[in-house]
Amino acid sequence: MSFKFTRATEWWEYKLVPLLSIGYATILLRHEPMNQVILKLLWLLAAVVVGAVYVSVINDLTDINEDAAAGKPNRMAKIAPVWRITIVSSCLLMGLAFGWMIWPDYLSLFCYSMAWIVFSLYSIPPVRLKKRGIWGVLCDAMGAHLFPTLFIVSSLSGPTPSGINTTWFIAAGLWSFIYGLRGILWHQFHDRTNDILSGTTTFASKIKPENFKTAEILIFGLEAVAFSVLLLLSWNNWILLSLVLYFLVVWIRKTVLHYQLCLVITPVSRPHQLLMNDYYLVFFPLALLLTATCNTPYGWIILCCHFVLFPGKTILVLKDVYIFLQRLFKK
Length: 331
Hints:
Layout: H1 8-29, H2 34-62, H3 64-70, H4 81-102, H5 106-123, H6 134-157, H7 166-190, H8 192-198, H9 213-233, H10 237-256, E1 260-262, E2 272-274, H11 277-295, H12 299-309, H13 312-330
Helix pairs in contact: 1-2, 1-6, 1-11, 2-4, 2-5, 2-6, 3-8, 5-6, 6-7, 7-9, 10-11, 10-13, 11-12
């Protein structure tokens, strides 16, 4: 049996790197040596990964009939029922084991548990909030981003709420939630045609993309405000350099490579970039790790490991820069 059922290629980098970035930034904000806390952060990430696998599995299981109606492939449809039960049961048992190890950190346990609960409500009938418009959108953003982010911040801040930087906790939660909203809305609008064919009544299936322009600007504006607070609290020269380099890449893609700059809704047949997405996935974590490299023994090892585990988006950025340089020097 292949492990493609986990759908890891769809969430490995896109969901885990922002969580790691918040973890890196939380450690730096607390002035703790990265090399002394990195193993705990990886343990927390493993707990989140188990939840992500569970989410992928139950989402595919509950989508089997609808995907068949839309002619869309479904990984779980090819797996025997006994293996489906085994996979779901294994995820739940591992989740309970992580929960037991998190105890008695009540806030962290609450955040970790809520990520599982809201995604179960999102996918599983008869509740199945996925098909209940805006409730499905909110549920996905909370399960995939808000609660895992708060879980990371809470766990790294200590077992008692008094150890938490309240401003950081709130800003990280708000940013992750709104970024999660953008992510699920992008997915729903991208999958809108299939959902209409299968009769899946998502939020995006009931709205024409051209009528969502004002809303996507408002959503991105709130996200930018929340993230600006995170940047100000973690500000240093590496952060400044990362912002300059990112917007240089945005300029190269827009003016030279003719990418369309988007906030939520993306074109079907034209190269495009979601504003700030590559900053969250490439430039921000690298800036934080370079900061750690300067003040942590063997910090460069952590930096190299990060790149090995999450190379995809960084390589794409480097490829676009390489194409730009090729065209520049041919003139």
